[in-house]
Amino acid sequence: MTGDARTELLISCLADRLAGCRHVAVGAASPIPAAAALLARMSSEGRLRVSILGSERHNVFTDGSKELFDCAAQGRIDAFFLGGGQIDGQANLNLVGVGGYPRSPVRWPGSFGSAYLYHLVPRVILFRLEHSPRVLVERVDFISAAGTSPAHHHRPGGPEGLITGKAAFRFDRALGRFTLTHRHPGVALADIVAATGFAFELAAELATTPVPSAATLAMIRGPVAADLVQIYPRFATEILTRPSAPRPDGLT
Prior knowledge:
α1 (3-16) packs across α2 and α2 crosses α6. The protein contains seven helices and 13 strands. By secondary structure, it is an alpha/beta fold.
């Protein structure tokens, strides 16, 4: 599968996870989740509201992330996307750095409001393109946002699942474990096991992630790409917008 085909597959896969949502918010530096949210909105015939930070067209907030946090606290955001430099088997996220904090030899941008939103948004979809043992670890070096909380804690939000460049997982909040449900086309189960640093459950019937239909590809390459030009111009023009010529792998 070519890089562009994989990107379209991931957009479609993430969009499927947004079915039934009323309001989806997308943070900064998230072109694939943003494209997925817009695709889901189009598929919902406009019933889904999408808020993308940094977008002039899809962002009604006038005071930055403050209003996003207010909406989450009021229960007005149904889904959000999070990632991390490290993600472990309990869905804990590390956005701070590798090694012993505060003297981590490798530092990342920081946690920002990840822990807050992780606890409040009912459907948090974890997304990381890289699927390797350095990212998907047994235990994160630093917990920026915890995947689970003690039973006596009030927590309406949390992880729904994890999508990577190789596979899709569901997360069981009661058990605190991931279950592999889908492998992407061309990816073997053995490859997923070798690239995952944590243990996970296996679905009774492991499925292959559906390839986007011709209609879905037309929406991604057309109106979705057009909507993303203002905030992610290179992603929209160089990756999503292309002639629909046949590819060597058979995808169109």
